[in-house]
Amino acid sequence: MSDVSEIPIREKNIVLIGFMGVGKTTVGQLVAKKLYRDFIDIDEEIEKIYNMSVTDIFRKIGETEFRRVERELIVNICNHKKLKIISLGGGAYLQEEVRKVCLSKCIVYFLDLSWESWKERLPLIIDSRPVLQNKTLHEIEDLFFKRRKAYSLHNSKITINNLDAETIANKIVESVKFAWDIYQPQGE
Ligand SMILES: Nc1ncnc2c1ncn2[C@@H]1O[C@H](COP(=O)(O)OP(=O)(O)OP(=O)(O)O)[C@@H](O)[C@H]1O
Ligand SMILES: O=C(O)C1=C[C@@H](O)[C@@H](O)[C@H](O)C1
Ligand SMILES: [Mg+2]
């Protein structure tokens, strides 16, 4: 497969990062449709490899192995694929190698939701996110703010409080097209 280090900005993969449950999967699918691109959800890819849910992988195989596969998958996709919309799992970007490859090969969008808004979404996701289980709300809050340091390394931030998924996807598409036109105007 070819190396994509010199890839034109219009062909770069777009990567969505942010805390679990902020909507990376939901919004990524919409962005892919709007830009006529393929969508890759890293959690789904890992589930296909093991033919198990993320919850079962954590339980039966363990988080350490999950993180290794997650990292290798992301590094491989970022190095060898282009024109994709990629939604990471919420913890993937905590790995330095993942941050490095995403920032060097892709355009990284951070979906930024406030803690107050995020808390309302907890009941929707708690059962399918093993990292949240057996934690108090205070411990989850600590994790939410600790992880912001890693997410602060991005190319663009979209503040998503009170916005529906369609509106967020439109904002990303608008922002991507703006960047394309600034850095690589059509016809040049
Ligand atoms: N803008 C939104 N407004 C309200 N609910 C939303 C929005 N975006 C996503 N959701 C809902 O929040 C939940 C989590 O969304 P989603 O699975 O897309 O998050 P995620 O960021 O991919 O999480 P993870 O990091 O665990 O992969 C889903 O139930 C989804 O329907
Ligand atoms: O934030 C996390 O650590 C995780 C988020 C999910 O997307 C899954 O990747 C898994 O549940 C771990
Ligand atoms: Mg997801």
UniProtKB/TrEMBL annotation:
Required co-factor(s) are: Mg(2+)
Question: Which residues does the record give as Mg(2+) binding sites?
Answer: T25
Q: Name one GO molecular function term.
A: ATP binding
**Is Metal-binding one of the keywords?**
yes
Which keywords does this Swiss-Prot/TrEMBL entry list? Answer: Amino-acid biosynthesis, Aromatic amino acid biosynthesis, ATP-binding, Cytoplasm, Kinase, Magnesium, Metal-binding, Nucleotide-binding, Transferase
What catalytic activity does the UniProt entry give for this protein? shikimate + ATP = 3-phosphoshikimate + ADP + H(+)
Q: List the SUPFAM superfamilies hit by this protein, alphabetically.
A: P-loop containing nucleoside triphosphate hydrolases (SSF52540)
**Which sites bind ATP?**
G21, V22, G23, K24, T25, T26, R129
Please give the InterPro entries that the UniProt record associates with this protein: P-loop_NTPase, Shikimate/glucono_kinase, Shikimate_kinase/TSH1
Catalytic activity, EC: 2.7.1.71
CC per GO annotation: cytosol
Q: How is the cofactor bound?
A: Binds 1 Mg(2+) ion per subunit.
Residues binding substrate, per UniProt: D43, R67, G90, R147
Which subcellular locations apply to this protein?
A: Cytoplasm
Quick one: signal sequence residues? none
Q: What's its job?
A: Catalyzes the specific phosphorylation of the 3-hydroxyl group of shikimic acid using ATP as a cosubstrate.
Family under the similarity heading = Belongs to the shikimate kinase family.
Q: What HAMAP family does UniProt report for this protein, alphabetically?
A: Shikimate_kinase
For this entry, the protein name equals Shikimate kinase
Instruction: Please name the taxonomic classification of the source.
Output: Bacteria, Bacillati, Bacillota, Bacilli, Bacillales
